[in-house]
Design goal:
- The structure is a homodimer.
- By secondary structure, the first copy, chain A, is an alpha+beta fold.
- Chain A has a single domain (4-194), classed as Glutaredoxin (3-Layer(aba) Sandwich).
- Helices cover 53% and strands 11% of the residues of chain A.
- Chain A has helices at residues 15-31, 43-48, 55-58, 60-77, 92-101, 107-119, 128-137, 144-147, 151-166, 188-194; strands spanning 4-10, 33-39, 174-177, 180-183.
- In chain A, helix 1 packs parallel to helix 10, helix 5 packs antiparallel against helix 6 and helix 6 crosses helix 7.
- Chains A and B meet through helix 4 and strand 4 of A and helix 4 and strand 4 of B.
Chain lengths: 197, 197
Amino acid sequence: MPAGRLAFWFEFASTYSYLTAMRIGALAERRGVEVEWRPFLLGPIFADQGWHTSPFNLYPAKGRYMWRDMSRRAAALGIGFRRPEPFPQNSVLAARVALLALAAPGGADFCRAVFQAQFADGSNIADPAVLRRLLTDAGLVADLVDRAGDAACKQALRDAVDEAKALGIFGAPSFVVGQELFWGDDRLEEALSFVGT
Amino acid sequence: MPAGRLAFWFEFASTYSYLTAMRIGALAERRGVEVEWRPFLLGPIFADQGWHTSPFNLYPAKGRYMWRDMSRRAAALGIGFRRPEPFPQNSVLAARVALLALAAPGGADFCRAVFQAQFADGSNIADPAVLRRLLTDAGLVADLVDRAGDAACKQALRDAVDEAKALGIFGAPSFVVGQELFWGDDRLEEALSFVGT
C-alpha cells in the first residue's frame, strides 16, 4: 500500500515542469508515494492575469535568468537541455493526448518522452507526427492523436484547467497533497515529505 | 583566507529575503564563504516592468500561495513569521540606514534585526524610532537614521539599484558569485557551492 498520493500538475511547455518530470519517478518510488500525473494548460491561467505569452518572454531579465538557471539545473541532473524554438511551444494537443494516454499504463512514460522530445531533442511537440511516434515508443496506440480532437477530450482538458484554478494553481509544476499546494520544482522534495503527515 | 565571496542582494520588504537573512550566516561560515550584504530596492525594478506594488499583491493566487509557503518555511527553519501590515512595507529608509550601518562591524546584525522586527515582531520598519532602537541594539549609533537623509546616502542607494539592474537582478534575494547570478532563497546552497569553483 502506498504511503499516500501526490498530484503532479504540469504544463508541457513549462521548463521547470521538465525538470520535475525527469526526477519525480525515482524520488516518489523511494518514498512509496503514488504520483498522479495531471496535465493542464497555463495559457488560460496566464490570460486571466493579462499575460498573453510566458512571463519569461514578458519580463526579459527574468527570462534570461531562467535559461541560465535551467542549463545549470539540467547539467546538475545529468539531463539534456536546449531552448525550444519557438518558446513556449503550443502544448494543447500534447496535453489532450496525455489525458488519454494516462488512462493506460505507459502514460507517464509518454509524458516524460514529450518533455524530452521538446527540451532535450529539439522536437516541436505541436506536431502530430512527433506525438504519434512518442505514443508508439511508449507502447501506446498512435491514433490517440486523432481521438484527442473529440469534444469529450477537449472538455476534459478545459475541466482540468478549471480544477487547477480552483486549487489555487498559478504556475507549473505544482504539487497537491490533500489540501496543501506546493509550487515549483524546488518544492518537490517538501511536497513528497508532506505525504502521509 | 576565505574560500571566496558571495554578494547577497536583498530588499528589506521581501519575504524570501528574510528567510535568507536568517540562515545565510551559519551556512556561509561553515563553507568559509565571505558574504557581502547588498541592500537595494525592488520598487524601481518592478516599476520598470509596469508593477506599482508587489507581484504578490498584483497576482492574488500567487500572493495567497506565498503567505502559506512562507509560514511553512519559517516553521521549518524555527523562526517567527507574521504578515506585515502594510505589505510591502516602505523599506527606503531602512535600506539607506543599512548602507551606512554595513560600513561598520555590526551592520549585518542590524540587517537581520530589521528583518526580524518586521517579519517576526510586527514592527513597521518605515518608522525611524524602530530603526534607531535596532541600531542601538546592534551596538551602532542611532543617528545613522538622520545621516540616511544626506544626499550622498540617497545617491548610494540609487547607485545600488542601478548596479542590481546591470547585474540582471529582477527579484530578491539574489546572489552573485563572480559573473554568476542566482535568484531566490532556494538557490542559496547552490550559490554558496559555486564559490571557488
